[in-house]
Amino acid sequence: MTDTTETSAGSAPAGQDAPAGEPVSFFDEPQVHVENIPIGPGVPIGIERVSNPELGIGGAYGTWGTSYDNATLQIMVGKLLGEPLDATEKLNLSELGFDSRYHLLELSDEEMVDLEVKVGGQFLREAAKASGWEPSEVQAVLLGTTGPVTGDYTERAAKEAGIPEDALKVSIHKACDGSVAGLNLALNPDLPVNKSLKQNLAEKLLGKKILVGGIEGLSRFMRFSHDKNAFQLFGNGAGVIGLIPGQSMKFIVGETYEVFDEEGVLQVRMLYPYSGKKVLDQSLIEVTQSGDNSIRVAGKMHEPESGTGVVMAGPMGMVKLFVRTGVKVVQDVYHAYQKRVTELGVPGKAIVVAIVHHANFKINQLIEKNLQREGIRIPMPWLLREFGNVSAASNMIAFLRQLSKLKPGDNVLFNGYGAGTYYDVLAVQVGE
């Protein structure tokens, strides 16, 4: 496994178009370690470890399955659904910021559980090593998963990695917002969820060695779907970072927000325990705790009536769903940030970069333009050309690809959003 502090190719400066060029599989990049997991016909997995010793932050990211460029992906989707995509059904995927996707469609249900537990364990183990720790030193794992392959996925992946049984395991099911929601939980003591628990997680995890991320086997999840847009946009991916709250990463300000997707613009099947209740004027988030070491944070979704995995209104529907509210949440956090840095004696200190969920390039471009109209100018690089939309994994992959450029004391904005609809936005300081 290769350690590197170099950011991978494929980033675009803020305000420019997503970079074009020859599609490159993540597996072919020189800094990526590729091996084969002996399940079924054999499953390739590629992982890159990234470390920034100055900050005391590291992590691992990557993907698994068969690599498809945009052309072969659309052929595969047509074969899988029993009819080729016509010209009106083919998305301009490169224009949306994606060149490659990773899928795995031929395994049995039992093999898929075995595979994803092994995959999860490997990413957690490599993220710990990139952070300079043995897995046995990890004291908490917070994982975002849209549709977990098994109800105790976080616990089983942590065990596979060699993380102690008494380490805290938190499973977050808020679709694409899952990993940033996990980071917010770990750092922000004022979150409603933290106040509802027996012990506030942000207070409990202060000074502890923790792993936070998203691991998304979306090709398995897509087997429940017949949505042609979703098949073209989503793919497998994982990103996990290691940090010590209050030391390598310090909370400045943050906010969480939810507004139910009544119209069902983005419908997602809930493959996790949820009571099904929706009470007027109450949170859509349910928190359950199994003993002292396992917590589940689950968000209600607008589920497809057909029982399929995902139904989406298309790229323009996603723009309408996420941009207006997403911009407002970032505005609110940014204004709170300005007030807080003034209180800390560093008025006007800039946020050096925003790590934004990569739903697609057009959405992020529009979010950036709307923020600029409000006088908020923060670089929002596009960093996931080789992956597609990998849901809760995307923010952590993007952060790791930006990690080498960060310096101790830099302030960073995390902007997560996802189906449901859920938003988590927070500003942090990295390093001492």
By CATH reckoning, the class would read Alpha Beta
Tally of separate domains = 1
Which value, in Å, is the CA radius of gyration?
Answer: 20 Å
Q: What is the overall number of helices? A: 11
The SSE string, one letter per element, is: EEEEEHEHEHEHHHEHHEEEEEEHEHHEE
Q: What's the overall average pLDDT, rounded?
A: 92
CATH H-level superfamily: Thiolase/Chalcone synthase
Distance between the termini: 28 Å
For the record, the CATH architecture stands as: 3-Layer(aba) Sandwich
Using DSSP, what is the number of strands? 18
**Which percent range describes the beta-strand content?**
25-35%
Outline the fold blueprint.
Blueprint: E1 3-4, E2 33-37, E3 43-52, E4 57-64, E5 66-69, H1 70-81, E6 100-103, H2 109-130, E7 140-144, H3 153-161, E8 168-173, H4 178-187, H5 192-196, H6 201-204, E9 210-216, H7 218-222, H8 228-233, E10 237-243, E11 249-258, E12 266-268, E13 285-290, E14 294-299, E15 310-312, H9 315-343, E16 351-356, H10 361-373, H11 394-402, E17 411-418, E18 422-430
Parallel strand pairs: 1-3, 7-8, 7-9, 8-14, 16-17
Antiparallel strand pairs: 2-3, 3-4, 4-10, 5-6, 9-10, 11-18, 12-15, 13-14, 17-18
Helix pairs in contact: 2-3, 9-10
